[in-house]
Amino acid sequence: MPQTIHHHGIHEHITEKGEHIVSKDCRYGDIGHWLKKGWMDMAHAPAASLFYGAVMTLSVLLVYASFRDQPIMMFQVATFFVMLSPFLATGLYAISRQLQDGEKPNLAASMFAWRHNISEFALFALALGVIIAIWSRVVPLIAAVVKSNSLLIVDPDAGVMGFLTSDAGQTFMTYFLVAGVFVAALVFALSVVTIPLLLRDSNIGVVQAMILSFEVVMENKGVMALWALIIGSLITIGIVTFGIAMLIVMPLLGYASWHAFNDLIEIDPKTEIK
């Protein structure tokens, strides 16, 4: 069984394979440091950053075009982006790692960075898929409770605003946001360092990585709560701007999250399994 030893400011973890991993406390000011480093990575990898940002922009536009007259589905799919954002940012983590190692950004390599640990990445994707599947069943229940299903957009030109300005739509959004924040917080706690750790260490299992991720969040509740709020707010801005802001938001958050991981987690090179 993995062991955890707590000291002031640091928390030592011994994995089942004997690796020594240290998680460290962080401060509120570190968030600005992560974002600054993320911005610098964007400047050093403009082409890759634009590619990943454009992919997210296109995805948001396709969702809007597909569900313009189905606001409940639109908001449901929008939360999928928030929940999947750590997984979608895998390539960005890889770009940041390349820059950190003094390498030239390699877009093709970053797109397949998960291949060296494919089984654990697949298990993590499955875990997120289960949470999303449950969430996809919760949203219709919320709509049924507040009778929002009866509120169909009669005037297509009114779009989502016709839904948001209605009484039923506002009631739905209240329940939706409360439940959505709870689910998104759970996903954040389980994933904040999981994928970067799977990229960094191919010897750690996904379950152990998620447990460590949750422990890191509990060790830094205030800072992690603010970091999650910033991530959620920026992704929301990216969505409500029809994806245009995602050109900057997605790469910035992806790179910043990698630097957050580096400040939070350290693997003892003496115990690392090659």
From TrEMBL:
It comes from the Bacteria. The chain crosses the membrane at residues 45-67, 73-95, 121-146, 172-199, 226-253. Pfam families: DUF2189. Keywords: Membrane, Transmembrane, Transmembrane helix. The keyword Membrane applies. This is DUF2189 domain-containing protein. It comes from Thiomicrorhabdus xiamenensis.
